[in-house]
From TrEMBL:
It comes from Modicisalibacter xianhensis. The keyword Protease applies. Keywords: Aminopeptidase, Hydrolase, Metal-binding, Metalloprotease, Protease, Zinc. PANTHER family: PUROMYCIN-SENSITIVE AMINOPEPTIDASE (PTHR46322). This is Aminopeptidase N. It holds the Pfam family DUF3458. Residues 17-185 form the Aminopeptidase N-like N-terminal domain.
Length: 878
């Protein structure tokens, strides 16, 4: 049954204080709850008291000390209802739950013998009966009881206030969290954990203890996360004026976790993959991910916890804003242009694909069946882009004022997206009514642009036309308010020209780079006093999440690649230039015509290589061809084989033509310095490994030898993994096979490294990849119960190995469907995510469409969880 945004009502009761007592045992944990309840002032009178509860076995229920008799309350699979509850009461319940049987990893579960919780969005109702909705905020006091030997560490939110020993070898700790919070921010952890500790003094002088709790063998993998945490705390003070508000902040690493991490108040719980790093086990990308996720969860303390969501339709209120905050943090810590390039590439490949598929939904959905299905790229990444557009429209200073107003006005409350945007409108005086459509309309807007320069009048006329394609349930769209940042690059000078915009109120000076407000379906902007013919640089910094088309010639793109002052657009010009060549080659491949390399692409790359006027990090991005997934997004119909062949052809042609340059680049960026995850070193390694990937694409003898040496040197995981991947993806089994074997033996004890070992093998383009997936599913290090393993093996194969997943015999689809059917029983949230590639059947040829749909039908015939049901129904809807 779908839930609708329009049906929102305040709850009948609110909880002012929650007392919990857990007596932990793997198969029967007793949870005693005492809820201090009172009627909600805004609720409709006479409503019964209805609590959420799932998979609980109720042992006892009492109101104000009086046991209730059967008949005084009703229990079904999802609720407990008390019809004649008083206006104010203390409700006590005692339930028994089975953490060991909890493979869904929602609520209280066991991971490697350790108890932990995941309550967002609706997991708390699997722990106890409660008003499990984010607009019910209470203070919590939690007592955790466990075996002293098995569970020496007992953690929950807030501050520990009491601890002691109990009979039968048990002990307890009581935690108090003074900040009212919704149940989704509750957390409990118990197990054999060890900690590293540090301190942070906040801007007002509060001394905060920082703890990172891990299994003992991971103590040497905590340094980077701790450093990232301190940097995040300092950054949020400097950038947003936000300070931490408890004396203790804890992070715990767990092995079995559905997502990246969770911002529980004072006790963040992390997927071990998003917190543990060591130079020998984690790549640069992993180090950067950890930095970003640590920051993300920490930033939620304000954007999410102090100010939370009224209901789950507002999810992007906290997620979009928090992603925006963590993206800016990472930009400040590393190369800002590269961070932007990475984020936009991800958005344009993965989120645009979601927006174009059957599960497309607005950033604020208006209905859902299963909220866990809505932790999507649209809510997170597009949500962040909307906040970024607000920043672009207001400018940083006004945006910061709006943020201050938001946090001050709504502190301690559960609010809506209107409340957030309202603050931005209030401080800036901007009318943001039309802008709100970004939250209600699904689909990626498309802008068709064209420009004309008139020598005689020295005018440049830029016309922009917008349209948003239909998405399921939304046939017609209205024009959006889109900030388009532009520059005009003079073709003679190669410099940004001054922008003088002709408006009804006279001439407006936009400087050298200005934001146009596109509000109509079609609008023409006239720039006057344009002294020389320009090439327009449009959507600088990717100022809005749209697809922009402009009839650039290849010379224009080569010119922008050389001259644009905007790093992002320089990179994008290179990508567009490569795309034009790729389009031709894809067509040639399909028509069986001989492929010819566009010399302009080769020349553009040559100048990048011989006049290195870029910082290394940006140069590495410029030298990277669009991914197969991105190329696929640009095609009307996806031909996986043609895309693969065309991209390889470009890569190999460049490698042949520029072999010596790539070799020199590799040599120039080698280093024996001790590993550090700093911007400088990361840039150097990525540049070196890009160069190596070109050499390996033609299996150049010297390149192969360098890859072999790089692997053997075992200097750091970034270099080892890069070399191993290139070898395993080549035809040099004589080197790759022993390397893989050595790697697998060396790291058999480390699941996060074995995940990389799985991914490297199942993403190889050779035709045995699918057989390898099947073989590896029986490997002792693999388990369908662990989401990281599933993502590393199944997710990597179905999501990244396009030629093999889309095999014409349908075996790739069948394998994925088999996994979905099993996961549907074990872990519905993961099942509903891993199925994604199958839902995109509309993008492929008829034969593949039929095969993919047949697998979706086969899944539909099963008894489905709401999660998988919702996705499969949408995928088969038309
Ligand atoms: N709020 C968490 C984060 O973004 C994600 C929690 C997702 N939970 C879930 N069941 N899908 O950091
Ligand atoms: Zn988040």
């Amino acid at each position: 049954q779908p839930v609708y945004l329009k049906n929102y009502r305040p709850p009948a009761y609110r909880v002012t204080h929650t007392e919990l007592k857990f007596d932990l045992s793997p198969t029967d944990t007793h949870v005693h709850a005492a809820l201090h309840l009172e009627r909600h002032p805004d609720s409709e009178p006479g409503l019964p008291l209805t609590l959420h509860g799932e998979k609980l076995s109720l042992e006892r229920i009492a109101i104000d000390g009086q046991e209730l008799q059967p008949g005084e309350y009703q229990v079904d699979d999802e609720t407990l209802t008390i019809t004649d509850a008083p206006d104010r009461l203390r409700l006590e319940t005692e339930v028994v739950i089975d953490p060991q049987a909890n493979t869904a990893l929602e609520g209280l579960y066991l991971s490697n013998g350790m108890f932990c919780t995941q309550c967002e969005a609706e997991g708390f109702r699997r722990i106890t009966y409660y008003l499990d909705r984010p607009d019910v905020m209470a203070t919590f006091s939690t007592t955790v009881i466990g075996d002293q030997k098995q569970l020496p560490v007992l953690l929950s939110n807030g501050n520990p206030v009491e601890r002691g020993e109990l009979p039968d070898g048990k002990h307890f700790v009581t935690w108090e969290d003074p900040h009212p919070k919704p149940s989704y921010l509750f957390a409990l952890v118990a197990g054999q954990l060890e900690k590293v500790e540090d301190r942070f003094t906040t801007m007002s002088g509060r001394d905060v203890t920082l703890q990172l709790w891990v299994e003992p063998e991971n103590l040497d993998k905590t340094e980077h996360a701790m450093r990232s945490l301190k940097a995040s705390m300092a950054w949020d003070e400097q950038t947003y004026g936000r300070e931490y508000d408890l004396d203790l902040f804890m992070i715990v690493a767990v092995n079995d976790f559905n997502m990246g991490a969770m911002e529980n108040k004072g006790l963040n719980i992390f997927n071990s993959a998003a917190v543990l790093t060591h130079p020998q086990t984690a790549t640069d990308a992993a180090f950067q991910r950890v930095e970003g996720v640590v920051a993300h969860e920490y930033f939620h303390n304000w954007s999410g916890n102090r100010v939370t969501c009224r209901d789950w339709f507002q999810l992007s209120l906290k997620e979009g804003f928090t992603v925006f905050r963590d993206q800016n943090f990472s930009a400040d810590m590393n190369s800002a242009p590269v961070k932007r390039i990475e984020d936009v590439s991800f958005l344009r490949t993965a989120q645009f694909a979601e927006d174009a598929g059957p599960t497309a939904h607005p950033v604020r959905p208006d209905h859902y069946i299963e909220i866990s299905n809505f932790y999507t790229l649209t809510i997170y990444e597009k949500g962040s882009e909307i906040v970024r557009m607000l920043r672009n429209l207001l400018g940083w200073e006004a945006f910061r004022q709006g943020s201050d107003l938001y946090f001050e006005r709504f502190d301690g409350q559960a609010v809506t997206i209107e409340d957030f945007v309202g603050c931005m409108a209030e401080v800036s005086g901007l009318d943001l009514d039309q802008f709100m459509r970004w939250y209600s309309q699904a689909g990626t807007p498309e802008i068709d642009a064209y420009g004309e320069y008139d020598y005689a009048s020295a005018e440049y006329r830029l016309t922009l036309r917008q349209r948003t394609p239909a998405t399921p349930g939304q046939p017609d769209k209205l024009p959006l308010h889109i900030p388009v940042r532009v520059g005009l690059v003079g073709t003679k000078s190669g410099e940004d020209l001054t922008l003088t915009l002709d408006t009804p109120d006279g001439k407006e000076d936009l400087g050298k780079d200005g934001v146009l407000h596109l509000r109509e379906e079609e609008q023409t902007f006239v720039f006057t006093d344009v002294a020389e013919a320009p090439v327009p640089s449009l959507l600088r910094g990717f100022s809005a999440p749209v697809k922009l088309r402009f009839p650039y010639g290849r010379e224009d793109l080569a010119f922008l690649l050389q001259n644009d002052s905007d790093d992002f657009n320089r990179w994008d010009a290179g990508q567009r230039l490569a795309m034009l060549a790729l389009d031709d080659l894809i067509a040639a491949h399909r028509n069986g015509v001989e492929k010819v390399m566009d010399p302009r692409v080769t020349e553009a790359f040559r100048s990048l290589l011989i006049e290195p006027n870029d910082d290394k990090a940006v140069l590495a991005e410029m030298l990277t061809l669009p991914s197969e997934a991105y190329i696929a997004e640009q095609q009307p119909m996806v031909d996986v084989d043609a895309i693969h062949a065309a991209r390889n052809f470009v890569k190999q042609s460049l490698a042949v033509a520029l072999r010596d340059e790539f070799l020199a680049l590799y040599q120039a960026n080698r280093s024996d310095a001790p590993y550090a995850p700093d911007a400088e070193q990361i840039a150097q390694r990525s540049l070196k490994n890009v160069a190596l990937s070109y050499l390996m694409s033609i299996e150049d003898e010297e390149g192969v030898e360098l890859a072999r040496q790089q692997f053997e040197a075992q200097h750091n995981m970034t270099d080892v993994r890069a070399a191993l991947t290139l070898l395993v993806h080549s035809s040099r089994g004589d080197i790759a096979d022993p390397a893989l074997r050595a790697f697998g033996e060396k790291w058999a004890h480390d699941p996060l490294v074995m995940d990389q070992w799985f991914s490297v093998q199942v993403t190889r383009p050779q035709s045995d990849a699918l057989e390898r997936v099947k073989y590896l599913m029986d490997h002792p290090a693999f388990s369908l119960k662990n989401p990281n393993r599933v993502r590393a093996l199944i997710g990597a194969f179905a999501g990244q190995n396009r030629v093999n997943f889309h095999r014409l015999d349908g075996e790739g689809y069948r394998l994925l469907a088999d996994v979905v059917i099993e996961l549907n029983r074990l872990n519905p949230e993961i099942a509903a995510r891993i199925i994604t590639p199958l839902t995109r059947w509309q993008r492929f040829d008829e034969q593949r469409q039929a095969l993919m749909k047949a697998e979706l039908e086969r899944i539909r015939a099963e008894e489905l969880s709401p999660n998988v049901y919702e996705v499969v129904e949408k995928a088969l809807a038309n």
